[in-house]
Predict the structure.
Amino acid sequence: MAATSVEMPYDYYSNPSADGNRGEIVTAVFTKERSSLLQRMIDSFKPAEATQNNSIELKATSPGEERDNGVDKDDSKLHRTLKNRHLQMIAIGGSIGTGLFVGSGGALASGGPAALVLDFAIIGFMLFNVCMALAELAVVFPISGSFYVYSSRFLDPAWGFAMGWNYAFNWLIVMPLELTAAGLVI
């Protein structure tokens, strides 16, 4: 536990007193305790501080009536209006890359069509599970940010920082590759 002593004017933290002593100096002691990695991981699964209209219980609905997941859509900051098919299409669109068009030729030549179909089925099954798990996280813990924010919340802020920069560098490399592959395919 580290403690630091800082001298700050009295009115920095509160309103001036009735007699107007604005120049009085007080010593404030701030303590910052860094918990262990295991404790931070355990604490990351605690519910976030409650905000207005953050309930996810389903209301009873009649057939044909749209479910609203117990969230008042007008007052909440993040609306939960994505259906399962929307989440699946976002996951599929984010998973298909240049390898589908450019890399398939070499795999087809070396392994044949059966190996290629089997390979796509196995990898597609694994990617589907990962993307649906990420989609469920997005529904249960709505955030305004990219997926690396979940790494910051559930693992460590430093891990989330590294994931964010890895994602940025990934797109700095992948975007020219996508443009080159599009030029080759067209």
Summary: Helices lie at 37-44, 84-95, 104-140, 148-154, 157-185. Residues 1-21, 71-76 have pLDDT under 50 and may be disordered.
